[in-house]
Design brief:
The structure holds 2 protein chains of 2 kinds. By secondary structure, chain A is an alpha+beta fold. Helices cover 48% and strands 14% of the residues of chain A. Chain A has 16 helices and 12 strands. Classes of the chains: A alpha+beta, B alpha/beta.
């Protein structure tokens, strides 16, 4: 098996062949370029192994496992009040989505309905969170194609959105805003007005950035037609979120099945090309759509209490929420009273990073492969749910070696049967 | 004359700082707050601090996150790569104490200061960009300005002993 892997990496695909004159053996002319785990464009630790021939990328492997902290294990045996904070700290960028998904799951096992005003406020903060997450994703992409002006502009606009989040929830990033039965604190009319005022400026900015992204020749040169995710890829790798919507799959939006959105007349956006530029533009479209949704939420905000007492019955529940990066699933088992027995989290970045192995080999240069990675809006902190440990030696196996071991195991078991 | 030269070296060194940010398994919250330091509102670059992310060229290592087992050796190696004089700033509750992950079931090996020497700690989950900026701006030049003199005295002590 070891030999086969070597052989695949060494033999150049294409017409170029270099042969050693003395021995007559083919000389490998591909190199391996490791990117990470600490790299200028990566916010988080991850290793991408690129096999290149000259500048052309021929193969790509993603190695993960640097971020595994054992959150699911820590959560076991915790009451929901504590576990909600841990759920939030799975990922700092889409923290509100994690919190909302966990609390939503607990509420489904409870008797009675949560307060409608609480649900609306939850969605309001969720949309603000989506705007800031999309802006930082686009900023990271522009940084990866070395367009620093757009990077700083996007980050500046994001500061305004964070101001809105701070206005409502009291904190910038990790908010602890959702509780079972509603939200922690009520909002006032003044706060909502200030949020809407700030969002007017954000809307102007985002429209300007979208226009620049559509017309700027530099951005077009690096982004149009690079890293195309086809519908076949979407189906095969289960790509979710804006990445799937940029490839013409609007049904992938889980907001269609969430409680509040149908009342707001929500319709997902989508684009067809599926390349880097389409993903950037879909995110800008969604930012503008989120601003519309927030305006509608403020208009239709129901009166009444913001939080209700609910009695948690416990049981097995599977809850889904559309996080900024795609579909987020919490599969939980709770006891009566709300102590977590077991929780399994599936985050949107898992399939989205996996698809990189399929689309990066088409990239014309190494820099483009890195840009493709950034355009997928990866979030490594979300990803790390488990590590595979070699019991005999007590060492942690990384992705590549773990795969080999798993393949070996499956082969030996199939050989026995 | 030599002392003047040393003082000049220290002054110049403390005015041009390159930083490397290392996420050792945190939740990203601190990393995006560090990234937010580069916006106009906080503007870390006006103090001569540049985001470089190449450990061999940098002066300051900003470490976030509880150190996971996978990072332990790599963090030590990364620390050795940074040339002298160097400073380490631990940002966030996780880096200062292990935070919420440092409890039963968590696969982290404790706070950063147990693995590499830490010069400044910024608590908070995540700390605000103002706090991160003020920590770097206050602590780091203080360490670098007197470094030439400290190095001289260390060499003198070695020669005397």
């Amino acid at each position: 098996m070891e030999r086969r892997r070597e052989g695949r990496d060494a033999s150049p695909r294409g017409n170029v062949r270099v042969v050693d004159v003395e021995t007559g053996e083919e000389v490998p002319i591909s190199h391996k370029v490791p990117v990470g785990p600490n790299h200028p464009i990566l916010k988080e630790p991850l290793r991408i192994k690129l096999a290149v021939r000259g500048e052309e990328v021929v193969d790509c492997k993603v190695e993960m496992g640097y971020c595994h902290r054992g959150i699911e294990r820590i959560m076991e045996g915790m009451p929901w009040q504590k576990a909600a904070f841990l759920a939030e700290r799975v990922c700092g960028i889409c923290s509100h989505a994690h919190n909302m998904c966990f609390i939503g799951g607990v509420e489904r096992t409870a008797e009675g309905e949560p307060a409608p005003r609480g649900l609306f406020l939850r969605v309001l903060v969720q949309e603000l969170d989506r705007i800031q997450s999309h802006l930082i994703a686009n900023a990271a992409y522009f940084y990866s194609i070395e367009h620093e002006t757009m990077f700083v502009w996007n980050m500046n606009t994001r500061e305004r959105v964070l101001d809105c989040i701070e206005e409502i929830t009291g904190n910038r990033i990790l908010t602890g805003w959702n509780v079972v039965g509603g939200v922690r604190v009520d909002v006032t009319e003044d706060q909502l007005e200030r949020v809407l005022e700030t969002l007017e400026k954000v809307e102007e900015d985002v429209k300007a950035y979208r226009r620049i992204a559509q017309t700027d020749p530099l951005i077009k040169l690096r982004s149009r037609g690079v890293g195309v995710i086809t519908k076949e890829h979407v189906r095969r790798y289960r790509v979710v979120g804006p990445q799937a919507r940029a490839s013409g799959v609007p049904e992938s939006d889980m907001r269609l099945q969430e409680p509040v959105y149908p009342e707001l007349g929500f319709k997902p956006v989508s684009r067809k090309r599926g390349d880097n530029l389409a993903r950037i533009l879909v995110r800008y479209d969604e930012c503008l759509q989120s601003i519309d949704l927030i305006e509608r939420i403020v208009d239709e905000l129901p009166e009444g209490e913001h939080r209700r007492e609910l009695e948690i019955r416990g049981g097995h529940v599977d809850h889904r929420v559309e996080a900024p990066r795609g579909e987020l699933v919490y599969d939980m088992e709770l006891t009566q009273g709300g102590v977590v027995r077991r929780v399994t989290i599936r985050t949107p970045s898992v399939p989205n990073i996996r698809v990189l192995e399929a689309i990066a080999p088409g990239a014309p240069t190494i820099a483009d492969a890195v840009a493709v990675y950034a355009s997928l809006d990866p979030c490594v902190a979300c990803n790390e749910r488990f590590v595979i440990v070699d019991r005999d030696r007590g060492e942690i196996l990384y992705e590549g070696r773990a795969r080999e071991v798993m393949r070996e195991c499956s082969r030996t078991t199939s050989g026995r049967s | 004359m030599r002392s003047l030269l040393k003082r000049l070296k220290g002054f110049v060194r403390s005015r041009s700082i390159h930083v490397t940010v290392v996420n050792t398994g945190g939740c990203n919250g601190c990393d995006i707050e560090i990234l937010a330091c580069y916006t106009y509102r906080y503007d870390l670059e006006q103090y001569g601090i540049y985001y470089h992310n190449n450990p061999r060229k940098s002066d300051v290592l900003i470490v976030t996150g509880p150190v996971t087992y996978q990072w332990r050796e790599k963090l030590e190696r990364l620390y050795r790569k940074v040339p002298e004089p160097k400073a380490v700033v631990a940002v966030g509750a996780c880096a200062c104490s292990g935070g919420i992950f440092n409890q039963e079931g968590g696969r982290v090996c404790g706070p950063v200061r147990e693995i590499i020497p830490v010069d400044a700690e910024v608590p908070g989950c995540p700390p605000r960009p103002e706090e991160i900026v003020s920590a770097i701006v206050e602590v780091v030049p203080r360490l670098f300005r007197a470094w030439e003199f400290r190095r001289g005295s260390e060499h003198g002590a070695e020669a005397g002993g």
